[in-house]
Structures are given as structure tokens and as C-alpha cells.
Amino acid sequence: MPQMTLVTQLTRARQFHGTVTRHVNELAPAEGERFLASFQCGLLSLEHAISAAALIDIGHFASAFALYRPQFESLVRGIWLLHAASDGWVNKLSAPLTIESAKKANEGLGMADMLTALESSEAPEHIVKQLQLYRDVTWKALNSFTHVGIHPIARTAEGYPEQLVIDSLRNSNALVSLASQLLAISSGDPDNMIPVRRFHVEFADCLPIVSA
Fold first, then answer.
1. 95 partner at 20 to 30 Å CA-CA among 7, 36, 69, 77?
2. 146-188, pLDDT tens digit by residue?
3. Are 16 and 203 in contact (CB under 8 A)?
4. 17 with 49: CB under 8 angstroms?
5. H or E element: which one contains 35?
6. pLDDT at 108 over 90
7. CB 27 within 8 Å of CB 192
8. How far, CA to CA in Å, does 95 sit from each of 28, 45, 53, 113?
9. Comparing C-alpha atoms, which of 72, 108, 76, 69 is closest to residue 90?
10. Whole-angstrom Cα distance, residue 114 to residue 26?
11. What are the phi and psi torsion angles at 90 (to 5°)?
12. What values do phi and psi take at 87, rounded to 5?
């Protein structure tokens, strides 16, 4: 497969995001707090991805990269809520926002704990492995961009190689693919996965889970 330029990759990302968004806009979560909370996390993950691509388009790379961690965390939390969270945690994260409810929700599991819980859940094994691989490969850099560490400071001085931006965008698109699956499953209607499978074929050129 010939290497895409950043301009081409952004065009494909916008097409992919638009296709996913049109499908998602036709969905609604199945009844129950678990499905609703999971669905909302899927929407958040998708929003972060679309926003990151828009920032890349105007050359705000550090701000775009800073959104990749919440994109990933929203996705993992949504999958954890659907497959592994206790009813108590679902209730905490579904409660109306107050000072007290925020305090209780913030005392929750970390990212590593949620991924560990997913290992022994009924979540699809291949998805859990993809999430773990993404975390293993990107986590230090994601934290650096989130907390203004050496990565964004150095890149602001040295610039962002085009291939780095392309690879990061493709990885983000892979998470969008997983988020579209989460949203379809959270709707409770298996038929909503049919278009999602088609997206994987149509946009296969911009969907590696990690760059080679």
C-alpha cells in the first residue's frame, strides 16, 4: 500500500469520522444505566478523535496529541462499564453530577485496573488485547502530552515529522473503529454492527491499531 501524505490521511480521517458519526446519530442506547453510561463514553471517545483531527488540520499538533489520552480512556471506560464494571460502579458513574457524586466517582479504578478487569470479563478477547497493546506502545507519550512533559516541549522546538502525525492519526482512527463497535453494541441491536463491519473494509487504509 503506497504511503499517504498527511493531507490525504486527514481527508480520509474526515470521511471516516463523518461516516461513523452519521451511523452513530441513528443509534440510541439500550435500556439501563449500564448501556447508557457505556454509550456516553463511546460518544466522548468519538468527540475527542474528531476534535484532534480538526486541530491537526490547523497545525495545533500538541493540543491534538493531548486529546489522544482522553480518547483512549473514554473508550476503555466505556468497554469496562459494559463488560466488567460492578453495578455499584455503574450507579456511581450514572448519578447526577454533584460534589458528593463527583468525589465518589473519582475514587474509582485506574486505567490499568480496568484493563485487568476486562481480561477476566466477557469482553471480546481481541479487543482487550488491542487496547492493551495501544496502551503499552503509547502510554508514556500520551501522559507526556497531557502533562506537558518532554514530548510536547521538544516537539514545539523541533517540529513534528509528517510520518509521526500520520501514524498518530491512524492510531486514533483505530480507536474510532473500536468506539463505533462499542456504540453499536451498547444500542442492544446486533444489526447495528453490520454497517460498522463495512466501515472496517471501506477505511482499512487508515485503521491500523498501531503503526508498523
1. 69
2. 999 999 999 999 999 999 999 999 999 999 999 999 999 999 9
3. yes
4. yes
5. helix 33-57
6. no
7. yes
8. 19, 20, 31, 22
9. 108
10. 29
11. -60, -45
12. -60, -35
For residue 117 the three cell numbers come to 478487569
Q: What whole-number percentage of the chain has pLDDT above 70?
A: 97
Could you tell me which of 131, 17, 138, 21 has the C-alpha nearest to residue 69? 138
DSSP 109: -
Q: Is 55 exposed, middle or buried (0-12, 13-18, 19+ CB in 10 A)?
A: middle
In this prediction, residue 95 has a pLDDT band, given cuts at 50, 70 and 90, of confident
Look up the pTM and report it. Answer: 0.93
Q: 199: closest CA among 169, 170, 174? A: 174
Q: Which three cell numbers stand for residue 75?
A: 473508550
Name 181's Cβ contacts closer than 8 Å, sequence gap at least 6: 127, 193, 196
Three cell numbers written together for 161: 515529522
Cell triple for 96: 447526577
Contacts of 101 (CB under 8 A, 6+ apart): 92, 95
How far apart are the C-alpha atoms of 188 and 102, rounded to whole Å?
28
